Model the fold of this input.
Amino acid sequence: MKTYDIIVIGGGHAGIEAASAAARMGCSVALITMDKYAIGRMSCNPAIGGTAKGHLVREIDALGGVMGRLADKTGIQFRMLNRSKGPAVWSPRCQSDRELYSKAAVEEILSTENLEVVEDSVTDIIIEGKEVKGVKTKSGNDIAAKAVILSSGTFLNALMHVGLNAKSGGRYGEKPATGITESLMKAGFESGRLKTGTPPRLAKDSINWDVLEEQPGDDNPQPFSYQTDLNEFPYLPQVSCHITYTDAAVHKILEKGFDESPMFTGRIKGVGPRYCPSIEDKIVRFADKERHQLFLEPEGLDSDQIYLNGFSTSLPAEIQLEAMRKVKGLENVEMVRPGYAVEYDFFPPHQIDNTLETKLVSGLYFAGQINGTSGYEEAAAQGLMAGINAASKIQGRRDFVLKRSEAYIGVLIDDLVTKSTEEPYRMFTSRAEHRLLLRQDNADRRLMHYGEELGLIDKELSDQVKEREEIIKQSISVCQTKKLHAREVNGYLVSRGTPPIDSTETISKLCKRPELELKELLNVNGAENDPVLRQLINDSVALNQVEIELKYEGYMKRQQETIARLERYEDLKIPLTLNYSTLNALSIEAREKLNKIKPRSIGQAMRISGVSPSDISILLVYLKK
Amino acid sequence: MTTIKNEDTIVALATPAGVGAIAVIRVSGPKAIETVDKIFKGRKKLSEASTHTVHYGTIVTGEGELIDDVLVSVFRKPNSYTGEDSVEISTHGSPLITQKIIELLLSENLRIAEPGEFTKRAFLNNRIDLTQAEAVVDVINARTEASLRGSRNQLDGLLSQKVKQLREMLINTSSFVELELDFAEEDIEFVNKDELIKRIDDVINEIDKLLSTYSFGRVIREGVNVALVGKPNVGKSSLLNYILKESRAIVSEIPGTTRDVIREEVSIDGILFKLYDTAGIRASEDVIEKEGVSRSREAVKISDVVLLIGDVEQKFSDDLEEELKTLTGSNHIIKVLNKIDLKKESGIDADVKVSAITGEGIEELFRIMKAKAIGSESYTEKTAVVSNIRHYDCLKRAKESLQIAKESTEGGMSGEFIAVDLRRAEDSLAEIIGEVTTDDILNNIFSKFCIGK
Done:
């Protein structure tokens, strides 16, 4: 029987990161997928990043994951979203060439040492006692391993719906994975069912492009990866998206198909995401809205297909086509493939720990959509963390858990294990209470040292970040003490339309005025004369970091204050063995919730809905026993 | 999200509420000693005092107003009741004095202790044993039970309803802010600056209304302090007796008999009035009387209403009126002309003219006292009223955060900065009634806006 350190099931965005990280950390890894050329295939829209998701990609990259590099190589339109707002909510996003992305992913995986791709389908997970031992496959070969990472996406008992026709399958033209859910339920796991959907694909040459509103990429595109060479970026020619809208006539036709909607007729039992509703859902729930925005996204440079973002639907195919032909610019459109909904099994994530290891079976990890998330970025983040933790456990290293205050990845996983989820979970910036600190521009400062310690980031790259950190720290302290005199700075202040000062003021204080720029302030008094500021002025990245920290200091401080009081509770650990049923002083709801979630710390317990401050006091008292 | 903050420094009255000979205010936490130092004037700084020492001095406001002379005990960690740095302030037993001192400490960023919190800290710092700790759990539980049963009384019920409504307004406002941050790409109309400012202002106004009920609320809970002041023989004790319809104060013809401050309680139209008959404020050689005089001054300082009493023969003492005005605001003073049974038309100016013998004018006096105590606002049973200093404190902090959020909005700051202070305001309100989580805001967005490409 073949034996590996780690088996990764599924070659999607979670599987890629898990397999790659574990292999690069020195473990022998088998990535089992039904089709080797489906590795890194984008099931839904051909895009990476977006609000909060872009943050995740930057963090994955800073830790040494692959998604950022793949996206940079294959991106055909880059935009920084929210550029008109503050730096904390800037989010990078790109349109990807679907074919090229998958190809790049396959290359990345096949060229990774210690990593073997096995084309097969897993039918059973071998568990002995409370430990995972390996998997059984369709081809009849058992494979043994010390750890198994399950990242099977939407494939578990997957059912695709177009109108009242339902067909087994996790992605258009691909088979579902059966047997795994049943195997895990036998082992005591609880499973649930979710739904997601995807819009129709259109023939590029059947669209009347001239009447559509164009949305180009940024003039000065920014890459995701800290490793991308700016001199060569962007690697591919850049293209535009286009925008159009539905109207009342479109809605009327769609309504004709409601009788045959698998959603409205109750055929779909799974719960769909509220933030990504189907077009039929939008029409019903927001009946007073006269039009809905649609994006025509290119599938690739050489692709003849267009992705109709905003038109996710599971209505009958002929209704989809008839309705689309009422949309401006799509009067003669040809549909290459209809939209569909897919239902799949997931395992409510209160069953996993912050390391993504299941609480029930040692050595078994869940990552990605199987944990109830949606999105490539959310999946990749979990895959990376599962891969790192599985390898760490085998190598006797410490658990690798990121705090909510350190990374969106920490927020994501803590939310999942603490609150579980009943609908597909997507990241938003508002989920991160430390939002002002968790910026896409400082992911390297926050996380790259971890990447280096784990062996996933080159020391050279990490050292650069550490050196810069020194410059940033020293510069902030200089700016907080160094004062500018009225006679030297007032001319500049007045020229920028802001009041002059009476005698002296620190650079830090002046920098808080929205009209002023740090670089100009530094030049007022010849930054060249100060050894620290001289370095700063020549390093635009460090300069930007210092400017952000000075300008928004007050806000960051207040945000920190709000959170700081709670932070120490993260370190007050609760044993997993604590039986809450015996703590009669707790409210009944708290007992039930705590028994289900089994929080690892008081801090985590405090975030569980239904657990009151009194319950926490009681827990603190009993923990002291 | 639930909140617990043991590293906060907390303060509360350690002796039973109401009037006793002395009252003890307990302060515990890392900033206990430095904070009390800020309001304490003694021979040496408390920060230099060693543990288990007692210090005599005065409590003085930032504006230099003397509140009371006190004894302060300093306990350093870990050898205090709670195991933390602690200070105990022993004051004279007037609720107004203790209230003022606690308010002063709260303005220095201390927090009012939760029920049982000192004991809980003592337990967590291993200062007490398990049986004692079990008792703490009971205390905490009793509180849970009470909140489960719903509001303990009408006042709290109305307040929590009102605060819930404010919280909803804030969640709606936050939703607009977050919507623009997380869904900027969507085809939805975002709230404009003016609308956002208006929404924030609406909540500030509502909070202001609640805050303005505080003096009334406190009156309901603790009563109104009334000092009776006047020269000897103008009939202070007779007036008091008439009001009480029983004679416990000593009435005599010898000036200066009422040496001590005498307090009686009486309910007028459902409002509790605490009446202090004073010895008159005047220089005296008599040591005992001297003590009485200084206590009279204290009584005036802590009173919500001062009855300056004169009579048709002695008129009002101008000197006395001047001194009263320095001790309390002139709007707290009611000039009461007594003994109108002796001379109907005296031509003396007064707020109200009464006879402690016939009772004439007493009804009018009551009406004016009530108006002074609770203000001109009309409160009905349906009015939400803030009567608890902790609630008052939370509302004040919520308002401060909202003002910053408003300034940020006016200054054109991006939503994530406005959100910082909106969330702080939400947290402050949440401390009164329960919890706000980020999920509330997202859920609100999902239900109200068409999101999703």
Q: What stands out?
A: The domain at 154-213+384-448 of chain B is CATH 1.20.120.430 (Four Helix Bundle (Hemerythrin (Met), subunit A)). Chain B has 14 helices and 13 strands.
